[in-house]
Write a structure and sequence with these properties.
The relative contact order is 0.15. With 254 residues, the chain is mostly helical. Helix 1 (2-79) runs antiparallel to helix 7 (211-252), helix 4 packs antiparallel against helix 7 and helix 5 (133-162) packs antiparallel against helix 7 (211-252). The protein has one domain (2-252). The protein has helices spanning 2-79, 86-96, 107-115, 124-131, 133-162, 201-208, 211-252.
Length: 254
Amino acid sequence: MGQYLKYAIGEIVLVVIGILLALQVNNWNINRNNAREEITLLKQLKNEYGENLREVNEKIYMRDAILTSINQLFDYIDNGINGVPLDTVRKHIRRTYSQPTFDGPDGVTSELLNSGKLYLINNSELRIQLSNWNNTVQKMVEEEQLLVDMDVNFYYEYMRQHYDSRKMGGENRDNDKAVNVFRLSDDNKSARYRISGENDASEYKKYLSDPAISSYLISINNYCRNANIQAEGLKQKIERILEIIQNELDTKIK
């Protein structure tokens, strides 16, 4: 009986050890697969936030260009445009029509959050940054929308009612992604889409002497500055996310 009991206990111990080993091997496989998937996700996130960084930098650049043009227009308001090429005046005015808005990709981040796979990201700070991403972007988008509403509903409507755009070189409201609208060079390839018109100095002088225009320009200036403050904050967060991702990849890929 004692010999049988020892045998039985030995069998049980072997079975338990076998189960534990199987579980351990299974855990190793799961951890290995999770580690591989994490590296894949980190690479995808690196690409996504690299695109986001380029996008936010472009929008900051575009709003800075608008601010530069508004400053130049106020110089024309104060000092006149005698000797200034009317095409240059027109290009500064054109910039004020634009509404740069952030449109960065978020597919990988959204998939991580919606699928419940955020646990695959081991770095706790990165998990927090990704979880807060949508709220962070929304704050900037709200500021950008103020400029869009101001431009579309008030400024551009006022321009449409009070000014003949064909006397100001023809209307050419380029898409805000066409960065060339923010350059003053004459190599604007989108010029072929312009509605033809003439530069009438009297129409520009009327624009520059209009108190309502000055008020609109001040408002646009303020909205651009506020949007860029939010954009700079977003840029810093993106740069931090990219820094964490790179550190994680450097650690995990050897």
